Amino acid sequence: MAFQPSTGEPLGRSTRSAAVQLSGIHKTLGGTPVLAGVTMDIKAGEFVTLLGPSGSGKTSTLMAVAGFIIPDSGKITVGDRDVTNLPPGRDRDMGIVFQNYALFPHMTVAGNIAYPLRVRGMSKAHIKDRVDRALRLVRLEGLADRKPARLSGGQQQRVALARALVFEPSVLLMDEPMGALDVRLKQELKWEIRQLQREIGATVIYVTHDQNEAMLLSDRVALMQDGRIEQYASPEEIYRRPTSIFAARFLGDSNLIAGQFDESAGCMTVAASGKVIPAAWPSGSPCHGRCMALLRPEHARISAATELTTPHSPAQDLTTMGAVLEEAVFMGQSMRYRVHVPDLGCALDVQQVAGAGTTALSPGRQVNVSWDPRDLHLITTETAS
Amino acid sequence: MSVASRTGQPAASGFMSQGRQFVGLAILLAFLSVFFLYPLVEILVLSVIDAEGSLSLQPLYKLLTNAGIQSILLQTAVTSVTVAFTCLVIAYPAAACLARLEGWKATLGNIIILFPFLTSSLVRTFVFIVLLGRNGMLNQFLVSIGVPGAPWKLLFNQTGVIIGMTYVLLPYMLLSLVGSMKRVDARLIDAARSLGAGRVTIFFTVYLPLTAPGVAAGLVITTILAFGYFVTPALMGGPAQVMIAQLVEQQVVIMFNLSQAAGLSIIMLVIVGVAYAVAARWLGIARLMRAG
């Protein structure tokens, strides 16, 4: 695809953003499979994050899209072009923000941003115009003549972003672009990247191991493990309805209770205690016997066990159980409790907003823990046949 | 000097107390004074004492205005610079390959570079005389495949001097280039590719500028070393290829004119010193030290 110099318009909403499709990508490096059948489709203009622990194949997937890894099998398309075996470069038409940025140390900020335009043989006047607009876009107007070594980490990251965007590629790839930055700067830049992407409308594939980054930035998250995608959905969907134990554990904090689901009665038997508690199987999913129940800490509540409540309170339709408070930690916006629940045969983490009216609960106390059964999300642990 | 050790950081302080550091420094300084500064001053004094035994700049002036010596100085300078650039042209691609080696291959590469250092330059020069002579291996080969003009005259002329000195000085150039090339971040090349640059463009816009300190350091080192070279031009050059160091030797051994030998030595020292100062100022001394 030829480069179309559009000089009049500001680097604005890109009409060139393209859909990306990966199907059955396999790659073995040095005898170890790093990608074991990665399949995903990314819509034009979508912000997709590859999230996972190190070694899960997220960077390898990105590098396969970028063309630095040629898959053993499978197909990658951008728009309607097959780019599987295309080397990285002009024909591939992708902007990449590398981990640690890979800025050219011997060039100024403006020189770095101008580089992709220069190698495309654009005229000096057009290059200057484009570079100026890119600098404005990432708010680095005054630093055009600085060398990268004299910039802060956050500024370097913005230069890398401007350099990857200035030639208006159809896809923008970002490999842990905030890995080297401190927490406060990250927080600020997250909002900026989000806003910038919405402004430009580019298709973005973003790699991170930070779940907060993934939640804040993404339209959809591809949660990866062992070279394969565990779940590919919106951050909310993965958080509320994880399809695997791994997904439940990786995104957010979780309490997991092993048990047996009884379809006809609409309840599950807790494996450790034999106790039966109300639970509903997520609609649309096939029913299986053995399962794990996920209860997020913020969905459970505890209260002082001053009056005995029935285990199942029909008035509020809550499941309530007696428990012993083991730990109570003040976390700022909330209190974090760890309670042992004999009826479940395990401990639960509970997170509760620490308002002024909160009764001080001290460890060792008898408490009641309760939750809405609809917040109990069941995950099958039986391998689907 | 090994490639691996040069990337190391200076040893942490605390290894020696301040007092001990001063003692160490004093020993080094004493060594330098006795074995370098003292003879140097002696030579300097010798070079500025005229025939009557009084202090004068006349002897140095006479040397510098001598047409024969001027032409030898010019010959020496031209040869040194030619050798340095020949080294660069040969060593650059070789160093680029060596810099990419890893593990045992890198070790083997370094051994191959350093191997010639284990032999004296006299022996290495004789080896080349065997190779390049009228009936040497190279000419025999050229004649056997019927190259026009063969056998070529490759010894006892400027060609012989350039070939011999290039061979001897090549490792210095290689080491300084490999050092700077190893520091080039491979991801910068990837970045340039992803931004749409072709191989040739990447070489000229990224790789060459980033290895420039090594190029500069290599050129300075080889030029300076070549400037004072003696064995190779003496054995592989003809009468027209006399270099300044040979002239010094003649003055000492044949003419017994220590004063003139000292004068020539001082002239050499000044030329090399000025050349180094200019190079350091242009290229930045820190960069030269780092890359060398």
From TrEMBL, chain A:
SUPFAM superfamilies: MOP-like, P-loop containing nucleoside triphosphate hydrolases. Its main location: membrane. Keywords: ATP-binding, Nucleotide-binding, Transport. Coiled coil: none annotated. Residues 20-251 form the ABC transporter domain. It is a peripheral membrane protein. One of its GO terms (molecular function) is ATP binding. PROSITE patterns: ABC_TRANSPORTER_1 (PS00211), ABC_TRANSPORTER_2 (PS50893). It comes from the Bacteria. InterPro entries: AAA+_ATPase, ABC_SmlMolc_Importer, ABC_transporter-like_ATP-bd, ABC_transporter-like_CS, Mo/tungstate-bd_C_term_dom, P-loop_NTPase, Transp-assoc_OB_typ2. It is found in: Cell inner membrane. GO terms for cellular component: ATP-binding cassette (ABC) transporter complex. It holds the Pfam family TOBE_2. Belongs to the ABC transporter superfamily. This is ABC transporter ATP-binding protein. It comes from Aliirhizobium smilacinae. The lineage of its organism: Bacteria, Pseudomonadati, Pseudomonadota, Alphaproteobacteria, Hyphomicrobiales.
Automatic annotation (TrEMBL), chain B:
It is found in: Cell membrane. It comes from Aliirhizobium smilacinae. The chain crosses the membrane at residues 22-49, 69-99, 111-134, 154-179, 200-230, 261-283. This is ABC transporter permease. Its main location: membrane. Residues 73-279 form the ABC transmembrane type-1 domain. It is a multi-pass membrane protein. It holds the Pfam family BPD_transp_1. It comes from the Bacteria. The keyword Cell membrane applies. Keywords: Cell membrane, Membrane, Transmembrane, Transmembrane helix, Transport. Belongs to the binding-protein-dependent transport system permease family. CysTW subfamily. GO terms for cellular component: plasma membrane. PANTHER family: INNER MEMBRANE ABC TRANSPORTER PERMEASE PROTEIN YDCU-RELATED, INNER MEMBRANE ABC TRANSPORTER PERMEASE PROTEIN YDCU-RELATED-RELATED. InterPro entries: MetI-like, MetI-like_sf. GO terms for biological process: transmembrane transport.
